[in-house]
Write a structure and sequence with these properties.
The complex is a heterodimer of chains A (323) and B (257).
Chain A lengths: L2 E4 L3 H9 L3 E5 L5 E3 L25 E7 L2 E4 L7 E6 L1 H13 L3 H8 L1 E6 L21 E6 L2 E6 L2 H6 L33 H6 L7 H5 L6 E7 L5 E8 L20 H20 L9 H5 L6 H8 L7 H8 L3
Parallel strand pairs in A: 2-6, 6-7, 7-8
Antiparallel strand pairs in A: 1-9, 2-3, 4-5, 4-11, 8-9, 10-11
Chain B lengths: L4 E6 L5 H7 L2 H6 L4 E4 L12 E7 L5 H13 E7 H6 L11 H8 L22 E3 L6 H13 L10 H7 L24 H4 L16 H10 L4 H8 L4 H11 L2 H4 L2
Parallel strand pairs in B: 1-2, 1-3, 3-4, 4-5
Classes of the chains: A alpha/beta (323), B alpha/beta (257).
């Protein structure tokens, strides 16, 4: 049974939660941030930067070493609520759950409650309906007229809305996307020349992977104190779009070409992960497309490859020379 | 362990790199582990022996500079070019792309005593073992380099674009905002200092080896920037380096309309 909350009471509802939880919500600059005042929330638009930094903070300390002594550091154990996550963001957390098993992540994940909101205004980059998303949330808010109808997805979520009245009707809505990727069978098209036209436009700036809510690759590095006695071991994001990512000792880079790196991104999301885990690693949030400076649209490329979109003249010329 | 003998020298430059080293507390702490024999901002240079490491800042702008460099090179095992000037040519190297006579008259209208050569990075004249570009140089990188010397690790230069660090900080892309930012073709390691403060990247750490210059130029053309605008930006700090990148990629053809 759904719960009901009047829209004008949302800020008070959030404020009450603040006494026990740190509240993280989308704010005006297109990011998720820890908020102190609920009126700073900006729920209308999808954020540019995903919420993954609250599970995998950039440059987090894993261990400290003092002389020869190694000290394991523990992540902050704050109880958190992330509010305003959309279906794509919520599914991204599910995918991260399946990939990352380290203590710091699990501890943060355990202390975080996911309070989602129905996505009323997907933009021209969104294609979540094409990625077979599931329901995954503690609470999900469906806006309808002047009320929110709240679906409960877990015991943790249930406790938060225990005081709210029950709804007389049930509101379940489906997200409307303009963009679609109906057929994703691209495995056989790996060597198609059409990928080159995308890779040739790629700047290898890594904006796509950094802004992807399911990209979790990382690198580990040490920082020494100036007296050379103490130090910290840290973890930061890495990106498969950079040559340094696949460079090993001796200087050999396994993904030397931009083309191989670009295809790795797409094929990992659509093909490789699906083979192993039975679902797509892409959640269709479109953040990679939105963040890309030359606006390379690989979903378009997939649609061309699978015959879901008519080739335009220029592209036709490229793909005609198949290997 | 014997302390490595270190010297700091400057050819034509603003001494900003030395100041950066001098004002860093961590450097003072680290210098306890170094045998610092020459540092013009600290003490007079009377040492005549050999060095293990020599940090050199500044651009080569005169024959005296070249003589000085050759003399230093003979006395040291390793040379470290510090700052954009020594490593890449820096701001003075913009003169390479201008009319020499005109520049001379503009800067020194009343004298013809000065004889300046074409400004060049020090690597054009002596062998350089390590480069730590950036204007002013990154304190953290200098410290990391010295730590590498002291702990016997090989220093690994940063080889990712500025954009990588910029995006990691969650910045909005300046190119998307219609500004000409050299981030995608510039070597990072500065922690995206300028774009984080809403200033476009001027490429002071030099061109990225892996840069996709063709795609970058196409993007700029789409956005309506001109060849001159791109060159003005490229030639602020590392015109010579970006020039080489352009030559490698044969960009002159794409730049014309």
């Amino acid at each position: 049974m759904q719960k009901v909350l009047k829209k004008k009471e949302l800020n008070n509802f959030i404020k009450e939660l603040m006494s026990n939880y740190e509240i993280i919500a989308p704010v005006k600059n297109g990011k998720f941030e820890i908020i102190k005042d609920p009126s700073n929330m900006e729920l209308g638009k999808i954020t540019i930067v995903p919420a993954k930094e609250f599970f995998l903070p950039e440059g987090e300390t894993l261990i400290e070493f003092k002389g020869k002594k190694v000290i394991k550091t523990h992540p902050e154990n704050k109880k958190r609520i992330i509010f305003g996550m959309r279906k794509c963001d919520l599914n991204a957390v599910k995918i991260m759950d399946s990939i990352i098993k380290d203590e710091n992540y699990l501890s943060r994940r355990k202390n975080t409650i996911l309070m989602g909101i129905f996505c009323e205004h997907p933009d021209e980059y969104c294609f979540c309906n094409s990625m077979e998303l599931e329901d995954y949330y503690d609470l999900l808010f469906y806006p309808e007229d002047d009320k929110y109808y709240i679906s409960v997805g877990s015991e943790k979520g249930k406790k938060l809305v225990a005081k709210l009245p029950e709804a007389k009707k049930e509101i379940i809505r489906i997200i409307k996307n303009f963009k679609r990727v109906p057929d994703k069978s691209i495995e056989k098209h790996y060597r198609n020349k059409i990928w080159e036209s995308d890779a040739n436009r790629c700047l290898s700036c890594a904006a796509c992977t950094i802004n992807c809510p399911t990209c979790t690759c990382f690198e580990i590095y040490d920082e020494l104190s100036p007296d050379l006695k103490n130090g910290t071991r840290k973890r930061g994001a890495a990106s498969c779009q950079l040559k340094s990512f696949s460079t090993v000792a001796g200087g050999k880079a396994f993904r030397n070409s931009r083309l191989a790196r670009f295809k790795q991104f797409v094929y990992h999301k659509i093909v490789y992960y699906k083979k192993r885990n039975g679902r797509y690693m892409c959640v269709g949030c479109g953040r990679c497309l939105r963040a890309c400076p030359p606006k390379i649209d690989w979903t378009d490329t997939i649609n061309i490859l699978t015959g879901m979109k008519n080739h335009d003249a220029k592209r036709n010329r490229v793909s005609a020379k198949k290997v | 362990m014997k302390k490595p003998v270190v010297g700091v020298f400057g050819v034509s430059g603003c001494a900003g790199c030395m100041l950066t080293m001098l004002y860093e507390d961590a450097f003072k702490q680290l210098s306890n582990f170094l045998d610092l024999r020459s540092f013009p901002l600290i003490k007079e240079d009377k040492y005549t022996g050999d060095f293990d490491y020599v940090f050199i800042e500044g651009t080569v702008c005169s024959d005296e500079d070249i003589m000085k460099l050759n003399e230093i090179r003979k006395r040291t095992k390793k040379v470290v070019a510090i700052g954009s000037c020594a490593a890449l040519g820096g701001v003075p190297s913009a003169k390479n792309f201008l009319d020499q006579e005109k520049v001379m008259k503009l800067v020194y209208p009343k004298t013809n005593q000065l004889k300046s050569t074409l400004p060049q990075p020090i690597s054009m004249h002596i062998k350089v073992d390590y480069s730590l570009p950036q204007c002013p140089p990154d304190k953290k990188e200098i410290l990391e380099f010295i730590q590498c010397i002291l702990t016997g690790r090989e220093f690994k230069p940063y080889e990712n674009p500025v954009c990588f660090e910029c995006r990691k900080k969650g910045n909005k892309c300046l190119l998307d905002e219609g500004k000409l930012c050299l981030g995608p073709i510039t070597n990072g390691g500065c922690n995206a200092l300028c774009p984080s403060n809403k200033t476009t990247c001027y490429g002071c750490r030099g061109p990225l080896k892996e840069a996709n210059l063709k795609a970058f130029i196409n993007l700029l053309k789409e956005k309506g920037f001109t060849k001159k605008e791109l060159h003005d930006k490229m030639r602020t700090f590392a015109g010579l380096g970006f020039g080489e990148l352009e030559e490698e990629n044969k960009t002159s053809r794409w730049l014309e309309n």
